[in-house]
Structure formats: C-alpha cells, structure tokens
Amino acid sequence: MDSTLALLERIFLTVFPLVAIVGTGFFYARARHTDMSIANRINIDVFCPALIFSVMSAKSFDLPAYSSLAIGALIVVLGSGLLIWPLCRLLGVQLKTFLPPMMFNNSGNLGIPLLVLAFGEQALPAAVVLFLVENLLHFTVGIYMLDHRTNPFNVLRMPMIIATIAGLMFSTLDWTLPDAVQVPIDMLGQIAIPLMLFALGVRMTSVDFSNWKIGLWGTLLAPLSGILVALSLQPLLQLEPLQFSYLLIFGALPPAVLNYMMAERYQQEPQQVASIVLLGNIGSLVVIPLVLVFALRAG
C-alpha cells in the first residue's frame, strides 16, 4: 500500500508542475491577448540552443551511452508513421495532414520537463538527445513530407544544431568556457523549459473543436503507435531499464505544436492539424500518468 501511494505521489509531483505552468499560460492568455510569436522565436534561437550547449558540453555527457536510445527514438518517429499510414485512407484524411502530427511529438515543450521531473536531473541529457533526434527528423523528413522541394541541409543553419555540434566538440575535446561565459549560458538555458510550457498553455486557447473527430483519432493513435513501436524495439535494442522508460515516455508524447506551425506555413489543412495537436495535448493529461505508472516501475 505504501509503495502504491509513493508511486501515485511521484506521478502527481511529476505531472502537476507541468499542468500548473501550462494552466498559467492558458488562463493568462484567456485574460489578456497574448502574442507568443516573438518569445517562441527567441526560445528556439537562443534559450533552447543555450540549454543544449549547456548539457552537451558538460564533462558528464557521454554520447555513446545514448546511441541506442537515439536509434530507438529515430525508429519510434519513423515507425509511428509507417504504422498509421494505412489508416489514413480509412479515416478519410490526407497523409500530409495526419501523418506528421502522429510522428513528430512534443519532446520539447512536454518531453524534457516531464523526464526531468519524473527521473531527476540525471534524465536531462537523455531528454535532450530525444528532443534533438525528433527535432532533426522534423526539420528534414517532416518538411520534405510537406514540400518535396525543400533542402534538407538547411537544418545545419539551425541554432540548435550549431549548439549541438559545439557542445559535442567541447565535451569530446574536454574544453571548458570561463565561468563568466558559462554561467550566463546556463542561466539562459534554464529559461527554455518553463517558457515552452507557458507557450503551450497560450496555444491551447485556440483549440478548434469543429474538427474534433480527427482530433480524437489523433489523440488515440499518436501515443498508441509510439508505445507499440517502443515496446517492440526493446527485445532488439536491449536498453537498460532507465533508458527504456525514457523511450516509452517519448513514444507516448502528444503531437508537437510545431506541426500546426508547419501546416500553416505550407497551407496543409492547418485547422485540422490544430485540432489534432491541441486535442492530443489535452488528452495527454490522461495518457501520460498511465504511462508513467509503467515507466517508473520499469526504471
């Protein structure tokens, strides 16, 4: 009985801070018109790269230790698309509309803080690796799915990729920055996670229930496909229990908000994608605690 209560308390302490910050963003945006476009751009261009560099450049970061996890994340993303591909015709929805949200999950806004709160600071490097794999695939495979004329090498210009390469160089070569430089980089990186969650809450004020049916299908299929792929991979990858827990939670994450931004940019039925993304994130309030029960015991 005591162990069950301890597990429930741990799940509550993991999920509630996320809900509280997302809720703060939601209710603030309901009370005051809130344009997060500038803040989101700064987060992508400055705060997230600072967080990535801070984690990757740390002496404790051991890239080979996360190689199997990175491979698992790659297969979860691509495998989810392959699983759901045949269902698109049955649901009567375009591939370009439905598949990206099913593949590219909320590993930034939700995944990083979720893993850190559930497993402590030791999970931050793994959370960043999962986020990088998903983000890299989104800006290459994901954009190519929407527009075959895109140049995948444009991803090398992204501040997050530049920060990753720089961080790995510092870690591999055992370089260090002066404290006067490293401390402000670390502080800037600490802004990224709460700002991601707050922005998610603001975005949820624009939920459109007119496409609720396709949104509901997405809410069910996105975590289900990711979990199935993650479970099927474990006999092959033989991840250690903690990393398997990370991958399982990664597979259960809802669609990334970036899917809506991409759909809007490429005019790929953005209202339908908005319903899929936002209802999926609301549905994760039920899915994530259930997955945490299994993941925390496995880890």
Automatic annotation (TrEMBL):
Membrane-topology annotation of the record: Multi-pass membrane protein
Keywords linked to the UniProt accession: Cell membrane, Membrane, Transmembrane, Transmembrane helix, Transport
InterPro entries: Mem_transp_PIN-like
Tagged with keyword Transmembrane helix: yes
Taxonomy, superkingdom: Bacteria
Subcellular location: Membrane
Database matches in Pfam families: Mem_trans (PF03547)
Major subcellular location class: membrane
Spans traversing the lipid bilayer: 12-30, 67-91, 103-120, 126-146, 158-177, 183-202, 214-237, 243-261, 273-296
PANTHER family linked: AUXIN EFFLUX CARRIER FAMILY PROTEIN (PTHR36838), SLR1864 PROTEIN (PTHR36838:SF1)
The protein, known as: AEC family transporter
Species of provenance: Marinobacterium weihaiense
Lineage, top ranks: Bacteria, Pseudomonadati, Pseudomonadota, Gammaproteobacteria, Oceanospirillales
